[in-house]
Amino acid sequence: MPELRHNVITKEWVIIATERAKRPEEFAKKNKEKKAIPTFVATCPFCPGNEKMTPPETYVVPDTTGWKVRVTPNKFAALSYEGTRERFVQGIRRTISGVGIHEVMVETPDHSKTTALLRDSEVETIIQVYLNRFNFASADSRVEQVTLFKNHGEAAGTSLEHPHSQLIATPVITAQVRDRLINSLHHFDEFGECLFCHLMDVELKEGTRVVYETRHFVSMVQYAALSPFSMIIMPRRHMACFPEINDAEAADLGHNLRVTLAKLYYGLDNPDFNYVVRTAPAEYKGVKYYHWYVSIIPRLTKLAGFELGSGMFINVSLPEENARFLREVKVD
Amino acid sequence: MPELRHNVITKEWVIIATERAKRPEEFAKKNKEKKAIPTFVATCPFCPGNEKMTPPETYVVPDTTGWKVRVTPNKFAALSYEGTRERFVQGIRRTISGVGIHEVMVETPDHSKTTALLRDSEVETIIQVYLNRFNFASADSRVEQVTLFKNHGEAAGTSLEHPHSQLIATPVITAQVRDRLINSLHHFDEFGECLFCHLMDVELKEGTRVVYETRHFVSMVQYAALSPFSMIIMPRRHMACFPEINDAEAADLGHNLRVTLAKLYYGLDNPDFNYVVRTAPAEYKGVKYYHWYVSIIPRLTKLAGFELGSGMFINVSLPEENARFLREVKVD
Question: Quick check: B4 and A172 CB within 8 A?
Fold first, then answer.
């Protein structure tokens, strides 16, 4: 018998389709032609030496011979850095000028790498760059919300192979983020606790959905995970906003994120994935009811009409089996 | 300068990325190998003569020599038709037994057809079958919500080529549907009008986003369309629920849906798409604040980390240009 599980964060029910569930191994990329990825590609705008192919950098972590991480405005920015935020209201219609920030963070000079293959210290540096750019964007008076995310592979929406992340700072708080803030506020008012701290406690006690624990972070599959192998990495210490982490936590996150992604990489043969930092906007620093985390979403299945039309997801795998499978993938 | 537009139905802001916008022609399927689709495939479970490959039919529209439309339980059902609805509550965790209805509606015996290529009367018959199955499912006391949808093509989440739609009846009302009901209720309380009737009035007056008008329905691109060429087909008469339509309206919808999809088919070279009937659940029949409609979502772009992480969509096309382009596609 299938099961409907309630996702406490999104408030959506998820169908765990036990009858249609696949074994973890079946999600590995099969039949995909293996090709060696070169460390340098002459036509790649993110490879060292090709810096002129992108807009001038806004931030860089220097190396003895060049750079470790390089940040530039997105050449095909979704929002304009220039201009003022203007609102237009006419009847039921609302419009805002599309101002904001859209940056690309080139994570390493090496074209062939992906997060799973970097060193812990390299991922830590990327996290520190996220912090820098998050704070920079949040300081812009036109900006209400900053979204940090990574698209890896074509199914995840990128055509650029060179490892990179992105930041989009928007002149509004999105309805999705606002809804989650309100839901967790109601939980705090009703139960006097952070919903996310409670969720993490339950998961650590049960253990069946925990994937990897480090000193400051826990990576796990949610009880009502929306899709196969989707995971969250949550800080043990209560913090509403990503920029509240300290240096020790940033280093630990670098390690946890690298290992968690390496488990996916080796266990499922380098699947396409997105990850995103789900944080409250900067102005929420210190609130007791929200708790930031990282969502990792492997793109192993497709959204179809039912999901688009109802908002309800059908997960064709078992969260407990996903977690057990990933725990058993040994990573250095 | 890009523009943020507010989608009045979803309450989400959408980035209309004017700087990255593509011309309508660029969304046509290019380089895709053309292959003739046969009218009959021996291994297809939905082709006539292969009825034993599916579970026994639950409903059929007979033809002189066989059937016009055939409904069966989904062989790989997401929910179980057998069993009772049981709820389990433990701490923050909620679970419901996965009971419900999951049916497949084979739309025509002809394997090679798609909605765009059917006759109006055939699409009308499909609409009448939707009505029958919607009412059948809604009468089940375990069912709270019925979702009717179609997946066309691989990017839309189907691997079966034979034209078919699906129905999933769930034992809960989804958060997405509940949120839209509440939003439109608030609009009604505040302005004394149906939000959707108002929206349609505005669009008909402006005309720039209208794609196709018939006696009882209007197909149009929304001002804040979430993705390229996504459209809605809305009944002119105020109705909260899909099963409130009469026979004349069902016939007119058959024609409007066929022509609207044919404009996509010929204009963009048979793109993959989903459509879904966005209706209030049956118990809402007659309410003044909700208004059902059909959403058509061509799958021309991919969801990436930003959309998943923020809930905000980036539309790389202009709704007004989409509509103009489709208006100019001549269809018999």
Answer: yes
Q: Are the beta carbons of A95 and B6 separated by less than 8 Å?
A: yes
Distance CA A152, CA A46 (A): 15
Would you put residue A91 in left (φ > 0), alpha (ψ -120 to 50) or beta? left
Provide the number of structural domains found in chain A.
1
**Catalytic residue annotation of A:** 164
CB contacts of B94 in chain A (<8 Å) are: 5-6
Q: Complex ipTM, two decimals?
A: 0.94
Residues of A in contact with B10 (CB under 8 A): 175
Residue A34 sits in a domain whose CATH number is 3.30.428.10
Residue B72 lies in a domain: yes
Of all residues in chain A, the percent with pLDDT exceeding 70 is 98
**For residue B218, is it within any domain?**
yes
> Which residue range(s) make up the domain with B251?
8-24+37-328
> Tokens 């002129």 sit at which residue?
A52
Q: Note whether B1 contacts A98, CB cutoff 8 Å.
A: yes
This prediction's pTM:
0.95
Q: What is the pLDDT of residue B34?
A: 65
| Sheet with A93-97, side-by-side order of all strands | A87-90, A93-97, B3-6, B13-16, B313-315
Out of A18, A79, A147, the one facing B309 most closely (by C-beta) is: A147
